[in-house]
Amino acid sequence: MGDFANRVFAVVRRIPRGKVATYGQVGRLIGAPRGARYVGYALHANPEPGTEPGCVPCHRVVFKDGRMATGFAFGGPDEQRKMLVAEGVGFDEEGRVLMDAFQWDGRSDGAGTESEPSGPPPDFDWKAELGE
DNA sequence: AATGTGACCCTCT
DNA sequence: GAGAGGGCCACAT
């Protein structure tokens, strides 16, 4: 696979347990603001999905609305939701993730304010992650 | 080399 | 406020 997908995996692996990230956010982190669509495409080639560290927790990647990819998941949206709930992610009555409280910052997991900055995306150091 | 596809997001009407 | 359309990315054929 290409390096792009590799970056996607690196970023997704960086998502801490109990947090979720949006496709668009991941896309911006890897340097593809309009390539969010390919994020899911890359995750489709996910080599090792799972909750354990070292794997690619694609279940922690959801829509910006907090909704998850319906129609395709490693067991259906229901299973994915259960996995997220098991990790401590909160859902609302509509079955969407509470992005205001569980959206990953992209850099640290302790920050409570998960407001996506309007400015430029932060520089992510995937080179170190990929072992460059 | 060109065309088609895809787990999306933003903007306009 | 809701719906429709466009766009750009990388990968596969």
Automatic annotation (TrEMBL):
The keyword Secreted does not apply. GO terms for molecular function: methylated-DNA-[protein]-cysteine S-methyltransferase activity. Residues 3-89 form the Methylated-DNA-[protein]-cysteine S-methyltransferase DNA binding domain. Its EC number is 2.1.1.63. Keywords: DNA damage, DNA repair, Methyltransferase, Transferase. InterPro entries: ATL_DNA_repair (IPR052520), MethylDNA_cys_MeTrfase_AS (IPR001497), MethylDNA_cys_MeTrfase_DNA-bd (IPR014048), MethylDNA_cys_MeTrfase_DNAb (IPR036217), WH-like_DNA-bd_sf (IPR036388). Residues 105-132 are annotated as: Disordered. It catalyses: a 6-O-methyl-2'-deoxyguanosine in DNA + L-cysteinyl-[protein] = S-methyl-L-cysteinyl-[protein] + a 2'-deoxyguanosine in DNA; a 4-O-methyl-thymidine in DNA + L-cysteinyl-[protein] = a thymidine in DNA + S-methyl-L-cysteinyl-[protein]. It comes from the Bacteria. GO terms for biological process: methylation. This is MGMT family protein.
